[in-house]
Amino acid sequence: VPVDLERMMCRLISDFQRHSISDDDSGCASEDYAWVPPGLKPEQVYQFFSCLPEDKVPYVNSPGERYRIRQLLHQLPPHDSEAQYCSPLEEEEKKELKLFSQQRKRENLGRGTVRLFPVTITGAICEQCGKQIRGGDIAVFASRAGHGACWHPQCFQCTTCQELLVDLIYFYQEGKIYCGRHHAEHLKPRCQACDEIIFADECTEAEGRHWHMRHFCCFECEEALGGQRYVMRQSRPYCCRCYQALYAEYCDACGEPIGINQGQMTYEGQHWHATDACFCCTCCRLPLLGKPFLPKGGQIFCSRGCSLGGDEASASDSCDSALHGLRPQDGRRAPPRHPAVARSISFADRPLFL
Fold this sequence. Notes:
Layout: H1 3-19, H2 42-49, H3 63-75, H4 91-107, E1 109-111, E2 113-116, E3 123-125, E4 132-134, E5 138-141, E6 150-151, E7 169-173, E8 176-178, H5 180-187, E9 202-206, E10 209-211, E11 229-233, E12 236-239, H6 240-247, E13 264-267, E14 270-273, E15 294-296, E16 299-301, H7 304-308, H8 310-313, E17 332-334, E18 340-341, E19 343-346
Antiparallel strand pairs: 1-7, 2-5, 3-4, 5-6, 7-8, 9-10, 9-19, 11-12, 11-18, 13-14, 13-17, 15-16
């Protein structure tokens, strides 16, 4: 991990831990692990980690340690807490970010506490899986969730992404626990381009996702798409020109590209314009839209006779009895990719927190 990044992570984790609600801050050092739950004896540390998948146990210099680092950065984005890690913000946005961060730490942030369930107690029910935690089992408790609320170690996960909560840091909201990233997104939209929470009064919404107004642009040429037609591919917006140049399919009949506003027929990797002129019998040119057809050697035919050549074709028609005993092969009609237009939404009349 680069030195600057490591320092930033250490400072942020220290800050989260300082503000979190936890019942036990005593430590248990272990040279074998990059991190251990505080307050446990060595044998309890082993018992805790034995509940987790092997590749997620943070042994020093292991895949588990690398997983932990990735999750720290993903679950606790620094730009969700401090303006210095964001792209340039307006002064009002900086104020909102500060209030947003402070309120989340004050009202929602917590750190799970690991301890043995007393053997003298019958047990409890895990909040995640609904199965029993027996006396003598190790469990994770979250004080913000209420007295007695507990989880199996492997069940202490974010409600949204279902990943283990890194270093047991959680955010509690409306009866559910979240990682920092998804708790923030529960309250405010996140820009798909820069990954930052949107504090501006307006943003662009498309396909159920959000962007800063200035960031909604073509993934290829970076042309602004606000109010313009676009096509979404793999959650990335493209202007019509770039999408056609990069991803247009070519018709197997005429060889011309199939435009984003045109219908197309597809079958086992082949494509045709959804027109009578292109999607038709190779031999007799009978239109096949909405009709059964017989594929052969990369071509399509209306009947067995046509598929065998001209002599038998003259004795056959599109209702040739040879097709009656076959299961009709229907090409899949793909709808035209009509470009959409993103809409702007305003947060001016909304409260800071939902």
